[in-house]
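fold-stage: in
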Amino acid sequence: MRARTPLALLAVTAALFAGAAVTAPAATAADTCHTQSTIGLTCHYHYGNQWAERGSVGNHVREIQALINGTTDYRQVGGRLAVDGRFGPATETAVRWFQRNHMAAGSVDGVVGPNTWRALRGYRV
C-alpha cells in the first residue's frame, strides 16, 4: 500500500500495531481521470460527446459525473456526485454550476452538449 502523506503512513502504522485490518482507500474519480491526446480529459467511462440532460442514463452520464468530481472544485461547494450513470437533480445542479463558473455567459442550461463536453474535457483545477 502506498501512503500519500506522512500522516497517512503514521495512521496505517498505528493501525497495524493495534492489530487492525488496513485496506487501501477506494480510487476516486480524481485518481482515474487522465488526459488522452485524442479527446482531452477522460475518466474512461465514455469517450464520446453524447448529449445528456435530466433523465439520461448511461456511461456518458458516468463520465460527466466523474469529470465534475475529479477535475473541478465542485466537491467543495456541492459535495461529490454519485457516479451512478443517472442524470438526476444532483447531476443537473452540478452541470449548471460548472456551466456558470467555467463557461461563457449564457451557457447555463443544465444540458451537456458539444460545448459543455469540450469545457469538461479541457478544464482542470
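fold-stage: in (second)
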Amino acid sequence: MDQAPAMQPQRVIIPYRPRFPQTVIHPNLESHRFNVVVAHRRMGKTYLAINHMIKMAVNLRLPHGRYAYMAPLLKQAKMIAWDYLKRFTIPFPGRKVNESELWVEIPNCNGTTSRIYIMGADNPDAIRGIYLDGAILDEYGQFKPDVWGSVIRPLLADRNGWCVFMGTPKGQNQFYDIYLYAQKAMAENNPAWYCALFRADETGVLSPQELEDMRRTMSDAQFRQEFLCDFTASADNVLLTIDIVTAAAAKIFTPRDLQGSPKILGVDPARFGDDRSVFVPRWGLQMLNPEIYRKVDNMTLVGHLTRKVESFRPDMTFCDAGHGAGIIDRMRQLGYVDITEVAFGGTPIAPNQYVDKRSEMWGLMYEWFLLGGAIPNLPELKTDLVVPTFSYDANNRMKLESKDDIKKRLGKSPDLGDGLAVTFAFPVQPKDRMEAIAQYRQQGGVVFARQDFDPFKD
C-alpha cells in the first residue's frame, strides 16, 4: 500500500453547526465502530450523517479513503444527500466533484485524498470490488435484507471500516433487529457498538405546537412511528405500547410514597445459554433497578439471590418454576421460605380471562402500568416490555405470545419483561401489615405501635 507523507494541518470551516441531539450523537459515532441511530422525522440525521462522513474522510491517515452514503434508492440518495455533500465540501482546497458518478473527492491527513460516494441500495452490486473506510446506511429498514451481510460488511473488513445504521422505524424489520442487537451489545459492554433512540417529544427539535398539530392530523400509527420512533406502531396486537412504557420510565416514587406497599422480588432464571437470569425488585408502584446475570450456574445464582433477598427484604419472592426448580429447593434448604414457584404455563387465577399464567401476569402488569406504575429508564427493559404481542382464543381469553416464538422472531427472550411480570403472580400483603393483623387478634383488638419499624430502611 503506497504511503504518502501526512498532510500539514489546515483549518477548514464548513457551514455546519450541530444542535442537540446531534451534539450528543457525533462524539459517540467517532468513538464506536458500529452505530445505530433511531431518529424521528425532521431531526436532521442526513445533515449529521454527511458531516460525520466528511470529518472522518478528512482525518483519515490511510491513503485513498473510500466512503459510501447509501439510501434505499439511488434517486432517493441523490435527492436527499447529494446537494448536502457538495455544499459542505466547498471549502476544501482541491475538491473534485463527479456529477455523473455522484462522488466528491477531498484531501485527507495522509496527504492523499478520500472519496465519498452517494449510492442506492437498489443496486448494491455497483459497490462490489472496492473497500470502504466507512458507510452510512440511511433508512436501513427499507434496504434489501441481504445488503449488509453480503455486500457492505465484507467491504469494511480490509481497513477496519466503520458503519452507521440510521432511520425512522418502519415496522419490525432488519433495522429493528440491528437496533436490538446493538442494545444487547451495549448491555454486554461491547466497545464496538453504540445505539440511541431519539423521539420528537424528547429532542425539542420540533415545537410542542407543531407536534400537537401533527398528532391531530395524522393517524395514531403514523404519528407514533414517524415522530415517537415506535417500531410497533403498525401492529395493533402489542400489549404494552411505547407510550405507556416511556411514561412509566419518567416517573419516580419516593420511599414515603411507597410506604405500606408490598415488596416483591421476581426471578426469571435463564432458559438457554444466551438468555439472561434476572432479578426484578418491585415495591408497590415502583420497579427498582434489575440485576442481570449471564452464563451462571444455579448455585452461583442462588448465592446472588440470597444476597439480594437479605438487602431488599421482600415480602415474597416469585420464581419461574420451569427453569428455577433447583434454585427454589436450595433457597428453602437455606431457610428462605418466602419463595414461591410460578408455572408460567400453569392455570391462571382468572381462567375465564387468560389462557395461562404467563398471559395473566402480563395482563395484570398492564393494569399496573395504567394505575401509574413506574420503571427505571433502561433501554433494554423498555425494549423487552414492548416486544410481546397477544391474541384471543375461541373462548375470548387473552393469550400472550410465547417466549419461544419471541426468541424465534427476534433472537432473544424478553427476560426483563418476564422478570417484572412474575412479580404479579399472586396477591401479596406486606409482612408488617400481616404481623399487625396477627397482633390485633392476639391482643383482643389492641395493636401497639412498633418502635423499631423504619419504613425507609431497605
